[in-house]
Design goal:
The structure is a single chain. This protein is an alpha/beta fold and 312 residues long. Helix content is 43%, strand content 13%. It has ten helices and ten strands. The strands form three sheets. The chain has a four-stranded parallel beta sheet, with helices on both faces. The protein has a four-stranded parallel beta sheet with strand order 8-7-9-10, with helices on both faces. The protein has a two-stranded antiparallel ribbon with strand order 5-6. Strand 7, helix 7 and strand 8 form a beta-alpha-beta unit. Helix 6 runs parallel beside helix 10. The relative contact order is 0.12.
């Protein structure tokens, strides 16, 4: 707590100084988002009218991110902050909004019922035995070795096209409220975006049509909503944010062989060591599935193709 207080004091000083020297053209509304995929969503609706800045930079982890002083300064010029419910917001959203009380905070996750984190292999009764873990809890280690709890609920709602449509409606409403003069532009952009999401959804359903009920293996359990949308099930390697124990690794390897899994998905924000180990044991391969990719549509297409190829 002391560390955060001291940092906030320093940030406030930098932010105050920055407010007089930084800023954006008057004809562009400056807004912040938490993660990179949100930049794509807001820009699809806001177009060139909106300047979108991302808090959690590419390659960083949204579970333990700490804002940079320059970002805090830029926040003083922001008209809105689009939150999405990622863990770093729990520690920082109240503090950064306090630096700019006039900034509108938009909770794009509002109205979306989040599903519990789950571990099909090591949850449930196995949680009470050696090597088991408690179902519904997933944590990620930060640089100091501490672990962050998602509170039992999966925050990765941006990886499901149907849920992104709901977020898009929230974004539209906020932009129209902030800039009524451009409401018709925002609405036209929104309709185009929704049509593109519907086309993507149809394409993904076709790609994964004969994969119903199949399971795919990931390091970090980011793809639960995607799996639910397309009749799949993810099997995570990471257990409560920790590397699996030898016995758990053995179980994962045996399960992958049993299910005919040939691709292990990793993301750039986490180590791929254990995924590579499992892939070697099953004569499979490791593929990147980055939940924080800015090219949201193409990323989901590629993940679906990799899942299909990995189950043949």
């Amino acid at each position: 707590m002391f560390r955060i207080t001291v940092m906030l004091t320093a940030l406030a000083v930098v932010a105050t100084a920055a407010s007089s020297s930084s800023g954006y053209a008057a004809d562009r509304m400056s807004v912040f988002v938490s993660i990179v995929p949100q930049k794509y969503f807001v820009r699809q609706i806001g177009g060139n009218i909106v300047n979108v800045q991302v808090m959690v930079q590419p390659g960083a982890n949204p579970e333990n991110y700490e804002p940079k002083p320059r970002q805090m300064g830029d926040l003083l010029n922001a008209r809105a902050y689009f939150a999405i419910g990622v863990p770093f917001e729990d520690a920082w959203l109240g503090k950064i909004s306090a630096l700019n009380p006039k900034m509108k905070v938009v909770h794009t996750e509002s109205g979306i019922e989040k599903m519990p984190m789950e571990d099909p292999l090591f949850g449930g009764e196995e949680a009470h035995s050696e090597g088991g873990v408690k179902q519904g809890t997933v944590k990620a280690a930060d640089e100091d070795g501490r672990h962050h709890d998602h509170g039992g609920l999966d925050p990765h709602i941006w990886l499901s096209p149907p849920l992104v449509k709901r977020q898009a409606l929230t974004i539209l409403g906020a932009l129209k409220e902030l800039d009524p003069a451009h409401s018709s532009d925002f609405e036209a952009n929104y309709r185009k975006f929704i049509a593109n999401i519907d086309a993507l959804d149809t394409e993904l359903k076709a790609t994964l049509a004969d994969m119903q009920g199949r399971r795919f293996m990931v390091f970090h359990p980011s793809w639960g909503y995607f799996a639910r949308a397309y009749g799949l099930r993810q099997i995570p390697i990471e257990i409560e944010g920790k590397d699996p124990k030898p016995g758990q690794l053995k179980t994962l390897i045996e399960y992958a062989r049993q299910e005919g899994i040939k691709v292990i998905f990793v993301q750039p924000q986490f180590s791929s060591k254990n995924a590579e180990l499992i892939a070697g044991e099953i004569a499979g391969r490791v593929a990147v599935a980055d939940p924080l990719s800015e090219d949201w549509m193409e990323n989901l297409r590629q993940v679906a193709e990799n899942i299909r190829e990995g189950m043949k």
